[in-house]
Structure formats: structure tokens, C-alpha cells
Specification:
Layout (H helix, E strand, L loop, with lengths): L7 E2 L13 H8 L2 E2 L9 E3 L5 E3 L2 E2 L2 H8 L2 E4 L2 E5 L4 E6 L4 E9 L2 E6 L4 E5 L3 E4 L2 E5 L5 E4 L1 H13 L3
Parallel strand pairs: 3-8, 9-14
Antiparallel strand pairs: 1-2, 3-4, 4-5, 6-7, 7-8, 9-10, 10-11, 12-13, 13-14
Protein name: DUF1285 domain-containing protein
Organism: Shewanella litorisediminis
Length: 161
């Protein structure tokens, strides 16, 4: 594959998050040349609660949901990636914070703080000492809010569905 000058190619080996990926979507992404960064400094921040900020000011949820669709892992961090530019995003913990879930057979329907829903297998959820981390579609990673974590722990301990 020919690399465009000033662009970086994204490959499976460059996924620093180790999250589960939709193989067809990732294969298509591998063929894309990433455009150059528009700034070395992050213009966006995502705090530990999953709230987005643009240059220090709160970003309305409708824009955060839009940007979540183009958020990708990049060089050990995160970036918004469009066909013409990349913008670094500073993430405090994980870019997605899950605030609710609904068990369904062997899968869970997760809802993040922005109202976006994700279907995941129970095996995509990894309880760790630091909290519960989740491999999400599009190479994203998530964590659970404290209240959601307590509900999830009750489900695990009591076997309630």
C-alpha cells in the first residue's frame, strides 16, 4: 500500500487499547491513510464522568455524541479523525462512561452518559481492581460509573438477570 506523505497508517498492531474490534470495519480502516494532526495540543477533553469539553468549556451532549462517532485510538491516546484532519482528545480515564445496563441472555445493552447504547458480550467486560473496563465497538473502551458498577457487582454476586 502506498503511504501518503504526512499521513500515518493505522494498523491492528497500533491499537493501544486492546479492545474488541469489528473485523470488517477495522480492515477498512487499515486501508485509510490518517491525515495530519491539526494541533499537537488536545482541543477536546473527556473527564472521568464521560463529559466532553472543548478548550475548557462544556460541550453540549448533541455535539459530544456526534464527535464520539469519529473518536479513534491514536498513538497511545485518542483523536477525532476525519478525512482531512485529526484532533487530539485528552481522556481522563476512558472515552465512554457507562451509566446503565440491561442484561439480555448472554449479552448486555449498555447506555453511556451521552445516551449512546452499545451491545456487548459479557466476556467484553473485565472487572479489575481499578474498576470495570469494557471493550466496545469501533475500538473504544469504556468504564462503569460507580452506581452502575454496584448494580453490575450485584448481578455477578447474586446471579440476578
Amino acid at each position: 500500500m502506498k503511504q501518503v506523505p504526512g499521513h500515518q497508517l493505522l494498523s491492528a498492531e497500533s491499537n493501544p487499547q486492546g479492545g474488541a474490534a469489528d473485523t470488517d470495519a477495522f480492515a477498512a480502516m487499515e486501508k485509510l491513510a490518517l491525515p495530519p494532526l491539526c494541533s499537537e495540543q488536545p482541543l477536546f477533553d473527556i473527564d472521568e464522568g464521560g463529559r466532553w469539553y472543548y478548550q475548557g468549556e462544556p460541550l453540549p451532549d448533541k455535539f459530544a455524541r456526534l464527535f464520539m462517532g469519529i473518536l479513534r485510538p491514536y498513538d497511545g491516546g485518542w483523536a477525532l479523525v476525519t478525512p482531512v484532519e485529526r484532533v487530539k482528545v485528552a481522556v481522563a480515564r476512558t472515552p465512554v462512561v457507562i451509566v446503565d445496563f440491561e442484561p439480555r441472555a448472554d449479552r448486555l445493552l449498555l447506555t453511556c452518559v451521552l445516551g449512546i447504547e452499545y451491545w456487548v458480550a459479557r466476556t467484553d467486560i473485565a472487572p479489575m481492581e481499578e474498576g470495570v473496563f469494557i471493550s466496545l465497538p469501533e475500538l473504544k473502551t469504556g468504564s462503569m460509573s460507580r452506581a452502575c458498577f454496584y448494580r453490575y457487582a450485584e448481578l455477578l454476586l447474586c446471579g440476578k438477570d
